[in-house]
């Protein structure tokens, strides 16, 4: 078990029905009774209700709605992803902070969280709305050994993981709007931004950021027609930590499938099942010339296949190209 002492104590209490004695905690986690007591005190200050009964031990009664490092680390059942979580109250963007941490030696699989982003980033330099306490503003740090040209496909891998994680935790039918958004009922609930530091034949690090609108009740007028939240679509709030947990667990699995072939062969079928607007008319907004066609899903490299008149298939590369559904955002 890794993570901070608090996250390890919280994980042990979470996994135990009934009381867990201080002695058993000491032996299981290889820490002192003082360390256990301090961890319990700090968790209590953070809003966890923990009952302490003499000769019985500790029992976790209830959890706060929080997305702290301790909460996420204590939930994850991953092997390498999220074993170190950096959580901040305020950052300019989690991607910026993750890039700095990566340069400073943060481990592969580290996760960066923030309650507030003052300059959240979207694709092509757009800003990202990230109000406090209501969404998941999260970035992953990867230090892979494959070539830089494989990195853009990770945006699609992350989109698959987010859609599956949302479906499992909320029951909502989340779909992927190629290449970097996740939508529910044709409105955006998540945006993904992948950034890389690399040389011609070597990757220093990759940072994948995602912003998931979980419990946001309202949006600015300029995006209200295209953006939504899990709260708005389901009519109830959700644990942000539970959603983040499932997204990360899906990503670890999806990433390991990806690196077997270094393409999307192993994820292509399920990705295409989740693709919004598949087999429907789309408009490709290419600076070289816009055109319409039928979306036929992605190929193994993550390019969108668009069928034009005469059954000709054109491969659409993400880059500066956008794709819109003819009858709405997705």
Automatic annotation (TrEMBL):
This is Bifunctional ligase/repressor BirA. It comes from the Bacteria. Its EC number is 6.3.4.15. Pfam families: BPL_C, BPL_LplA_LipB, HTH_11. GO terms for biological process: protein lipoylation; regulation of DNA-templated transcription. Residues 73-259 form the BPL/LPL catalytic domain. The gene is birA. It catalyses: biotin + L-lysyl-[protein] + ATP = N(6)-biotinyl-L-lysyl-[protein] + AMP + diphosphate + H(+). Acts both as a biotin--[acetyl-CoA-carboxylase] ligase and a repressor. Residues 22-41 bind DNA. Belongs to the biotin--protein ligase family. Biotin binds at residues 93-95, 117, 188. GO terms for molecular function: ATP binding; biotin--[biotin carboxyl-carrier protein] ligase activity; DNA binding; transferase activity. Coiled coil: none annotated. GO terms for cellular component: cytoplasm.
């Amino acid at each position: 078990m890794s993570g901070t002492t608090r996250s390890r104590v919280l994980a042990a209490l979470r996994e135990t029905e009934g009381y867990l004695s201080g002695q058993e905690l000491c032996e299981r986690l290889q820490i002192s009774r003082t360390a256990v007591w301090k961890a319990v005190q700090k968790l209590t200050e953070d809003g966890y209700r923990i009952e302490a009964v003499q000769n019985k031990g500790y029992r976790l009664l209830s959890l706060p709605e929080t997305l702290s490092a301790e909460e996420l680390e204590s939930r994850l059942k991953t092997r390498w992803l999220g074993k170190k979580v950096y959580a901040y109250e305020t950052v300019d963007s989690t991607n910026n902070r993750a890039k700095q941490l990566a340069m400073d030696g943060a481990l592969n699989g580290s996760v960066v969280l923030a309650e507030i982003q003052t300059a959240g980033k979207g694709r092509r330099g757009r800003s990202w709305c990230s109000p406090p306490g209501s969404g998941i503003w999260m970035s992953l740090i990867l230090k892979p050994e494959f070539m830089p040209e494989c990195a853009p496909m990770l945006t699609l891998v992350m989109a698959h993981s987010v859609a599956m994680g949302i479906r499992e935790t909320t029951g909502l039918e989340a779909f992927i709007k190629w290449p970097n958004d996740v939508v529910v009922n044709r409105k955006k609930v998540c945006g993904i931004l992948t950034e890389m530091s690399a040389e011609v034949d070597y990757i220093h690090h990759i940072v994948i950021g995602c912003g998931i609108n979980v419990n946001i009740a309202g949006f600015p007028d300029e995006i209200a027609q295209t953006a939504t939240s899990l709260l708005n679509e389901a009519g109830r709030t959700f644990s942000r930590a539970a959603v983040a947990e499932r997204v990360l667990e899906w990503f670890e699995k999806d990433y390991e499938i990806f690196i077997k072939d270094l393409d999307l062969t192993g994820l292509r079928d399920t990705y295409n099942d989740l693709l919004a607007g598949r087999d429907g008319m789309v408009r490709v907004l290419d600076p070289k010339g816009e055109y319409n066609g039928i979306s036929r899903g992605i190929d193994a490299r993550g390019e969108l296949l668009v069928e034009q008149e005469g059954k000709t298939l054109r491969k659409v590369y993400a880059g500066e190209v956008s794709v819109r559904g003819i009858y709405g955002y997705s």
